[in-house]
Amino acid sequence: MDILEKIQKVEALIKRAATEGERQSAIQAKERLLKTKEDTEIEYNVTMGDMWQKKLFVAICHKYSLKTYRYHRQKYTTTMVRVSKSFLDGVVWPEFLKFRDILGKLVDEVTADIISKIHKDEEEIVISGEIEQGRDEPPKNQNL
Q1: Residue 88: CB partners within 8 Å, gap ≥ 6?
Q2: Do 32 and 59 touch, CB atoms closer than 8 A?
Q3: Checking DSSP bridges between strand 78-83 and strand 68-69, what pairing results, if any?
Q4: How many Å apart are CA 38 and CA 63, to the nearest integer?
Q5: How many other β-carbons are positioned within 10 Å of the β-carbon of residue 36?
Q6: Could you give the CA distance from residue 142 to residue 119 in angstroms, rounded to a whole number?
Q7: How many CA atoms are closer than 13 Å to the CA of 65, on its beta-carbon side?
Q8: Which of 94, 25, 38, 101 is nearest to 65 (CA)?
Q9: Model confidence over 66-88: pLDDT tens digits?
């Protein structure tokens, strides 16, 4: 059982704890598991393809009490995080990949649905021939 599975089981214990004592014990167990992420933290520069992926990554980092930040003049799709390699590889990144795939499928479904409502399944017209290049000036008026 990897650390991600352990954390997920402890989170389930927190949610279904019958007494306050059980809940506190589960919270302490989660904190101990999260402390394993602190064994030599490294600063990672994570650049995503779009803002949705960045927001997802940041949300997952915040779930595990990781602080994300950006340096001045870095792109909006870039985030920095200080975390140990084992915690990033074993917990954060696998969870990000799982939710990124789910998010990607949802976005594809919604996009296809919207496009099907706007545009009927007509084929795009293809015009044969060459595109004229090198015209920098607009056509001149001709006096007839």
Answers
A1: 44, 81
A2: no
A3: antiparallel
A4: 15
A5: 15
A6: 41
A7: 9
A8: 38
A9: 999 999 998 999 999 999 888 89
Q: What is the 3-state secondary structure (H, E, C) of the chain?
A: CCHHHHHHHHHHHHHCCCCHHHHHHHHHHHHHHHHHHHCCCEEEEEECCCHHHHHHHHHHHHHCCCCEECCCCCCCCEEEEEECHHHHHHHHHHHHHHHHHHHHHHHHHHHHHHHHHHCCCCCCCCCCCCCCCCCCCCCCCCCC
Encoded tokens for 109: 């479904």
Would you give the end-to-end CA distance of the chain in angstroms?
86
| Token digits of residue 81 | 């995080």
List pLDDT tens digits, range 82-141. 998 888 988 899 999 999 999 999 999 999 899 888 876 667 777 777 777 655 665 555
Residues in the chain: 144
28, amino acid identity: Q
